[in-house]
Amino acid sequence: MKFLKFFAALLAVLFILSGCGAKSGNASGAHFGTLDYNYKDASSEAGSAMTEENIADRKIIYTAYVNMESTGYDESYEKIKALITSSNGYISESSYTGRGINSTHKERYCSVTARIPAESYSAFLDGMSDVGKITALTEHTADVTASYYDYEARIAALEVQEERLLAMLSETKDINSLILIEERLSEVRYEIENYESSLNYLKNAVDYSTVVIYLDEVISSSSNIGQQILGALQSGWNGLVNGFAQFFVWFFSALPTIIIIAVAVIIIVKIVKKQLKKRLPAPTADTPAAPEKEPEQD
To answer: Which of 26, 65, 156, 234 has the greatest number of beta carbons closer than 10 A?
Structure first.
């Protein structure tokens, strides 16, 4: 009988201890279980919105390179700018090379990088045929649909994790748990910002297509011989005038130096003459005097 009482008491103690252990385990899990949150699980939930209907809305980046020639360079350049403006686009980069002062037949060229709204991309390329002669046209497309929706899903999953961490932060009182939660919050916030930056880049590239335009000036071959001769004479005259101008500019800039050198040379010559006179022997009595010059007779 005593043995049965002892055995029953032992079972009661073991039951109580197991209950306490379960409670402590549940409490520990409440504080730290969410810290091991895997965004991939939430990503599958957030990415469930990426159905076949959304896939139809593909994210395409369009890029085009257009080579053009024009005999009316200035007019074509203005048409390019007007076409970009009418398409609600903007110029992100441009470069220009013009003629030199003495060049009468040197061709000009420029490159213009335009950002055009994706919905106006095709119409913009069609309008380029009115600007000048298109000699080459290259188009590239990049399908970034998978990356686009993947970034959105990752951001959504991380935001869910951020909300849960904030809720835990407001409830927990343990210092160590607070430190761990704040560290994880900082990591989650950093990841969200990185994915948002990548997503914004894709959005901009998808919303605005890139068109790079190269415009070359072509000198008309219909110029007659008279115009060519006139151009050659004008070029020669400009060269002569520039030559004289450069000479006078050099001469007047060097004039102070020339004056100083001339004065120094005159002084040196005078000094040398005086030294030579001192070294010559003085005339003696035996030395016949130089005959006087007889007056000229009329």
So the answer is: 156
